[in-house]
Structure formats: structure tokens, C-alpha cells
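Hi Y.,

Following your request, here is the sequence exactly as I used it, all 304 residues.
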Amino acid sequence: MKIYRTDNFPVPLPEGHRFPAGKYAMLSRRLIADGVVSDHELLVPRAVSRDELLRVHTAEYVHRLENGRMTAKEMRRIGLPWSLELVERARRSVGATVQSGFAAAKEQLAVSLSGGTHHAFADRGEGYCMFNDVAVAARALQAAGKAGKILVIDTDVHQGNGTAVIFRDDPTVFTFSLHGKNNFPLCKEPGDLDVELADGTGDEAYLSALQQGLERIGERFSPEMAFYLAGADLHRGDRYGRMALTKKGLALRDRQVLTFCRKHRLPVAVTMAGGYGRDIADTVDIHVETVRICKREMRTREST
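Below is the corresponding structure, written out as C-alpha cells. Let me know if you'd prefer a different format.
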């Protein structure tokens, strides 16, 4: 199973910045220390190409972002200060998801230890998202003839508004977002299937809503592969999530999604998506368990 890291590309941020950039390095270290992976299994992704970006994003937006010509207001909307390192890291993160998609199409399952930048629109970014990695990866796979119909299963606590708009009225991509009703973004963008949950939703109610959503997808769409955004920000210790899921509940979520994909014979590329724990170690614990579950799922697929 291919696993792509991006912690090799640190981004300079002001002291006290809210974005938990350190979680990526912590995640790689924990995966190795816990014996989930060996160091050589963590692959450094290539940077996404400009041509790949332009299948989704406008040329003007890509040019201005790459060359530091964004306005201060636009960068405030993204929530990160512009730098060459930021752009390079974003391009590597998208590259990791593109490569995960191709690896999954060939080998059934692959993981990016970053990604899930679902708030990026074709012509703008927001919410820590500059380029929409899953959208770029989906278009790359379609262009290469590796998958025609693609399912996006988005379980980040925030609605995937950018992804919903990019694929609106596109019958080849089905977007499913299971998210907090009262959380960011304030104005949701309708996707193919949106399930909104109240603040304080716990394990049982969440897993029931997820199962119902997955069953509805099976009735409406016949995908050839899936992208799974495994957000950790549903955890009850997250600063911004407003949900009450436990680590056990999040592990059950991962297994539920991966079982659905196996049942429908879908290759799946997994991204970590959001996670902003009050204790960042909680977020890392959740991401580590997601990767561990993916490795078990890969063994199950290989044995059947």
C-alpha cells in the first residue's frame, strides 16, 4: 500500500498561528515509532503539475497564487500567510492525493498523510485550502482513463463546499458530505448528497447517519473508485468540530467506509483532511489509527 508524506515541506507560520502544521511531522514520527509503517514506506510525492491544476482551477488564480499576487483579503480568506514554501507545500499535498489516486486505481488502496482541501474553489481558496486536491486527482484519473465515475466520501466535520461547486451538474462525480450543520462554512453549497448533523452528535447517531448515507449512494450511483476524506475534527476534543465522537467511534467510521468500498469493489484513496485537537496528540492518534485500519483493509483485500 502506497503512503505519501508531506512533512518534508514545512511552512513558516507566525508564532501562535491556529493551523496545526506540526501534526504532519508528528504523524510520520508516530507511524514509524508505533511500527505501523517503516520509514522507507513513507513516500515523498511529486509536486502537482500546472496542467493538472488547470483541469480544475482557473489559470488566473493559479498564476496569482504561485507568484504571490494574491490580495491580503484573499489570503485572509485562506487563513495562511503567503510564501513560496506555502505554495510548494500545497502543490506537494495535491501531488500526494493525485499519486494516491493512481496507486489506488492500480493496487486497490493508498493513503495521503495530508490532503482533503475541500474548501478550495476553481478560482479561490478558503479555510486553509488553496488547491482542491481531490478534484484535481479525480480529473487526472479521468483524463488518464483510470476511472470514469468517481465517488467522494467526505467525513470532515466541515462541508466540502468547494468540491460540491466544482462537480455540480457533473454526472461522473458524486459528492457525499456528512458534516456539522452549524459549522464552517456558514453558507453551504449543495452537493449530490449532504447530511447535516447537530452540534454534540456522538458515535451512535453519527455512525447511523453515515450508514444511511452510504446506502443511499448505493441506490443512486455506480462509481468505479472512491476518495475518502477521513477528518479527525469530529473528535470531542477538537477545537472547532463541535461534535462528540470518541476515538473508537472514529475508528468505526473508518472501517464502515472502507467496508462499503470493498463491498462495492471500489479502489479507494484516503486523505487525512482536518483535525485541530486541543491536544494535537489526540488528532495524531486518530490519523495513526486511520492508517492502521487502512493497512488491515489492504491485507483483507489481498486475501480475498
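The chain has a mean pLDDT of 97.

Thanks again,
Q.
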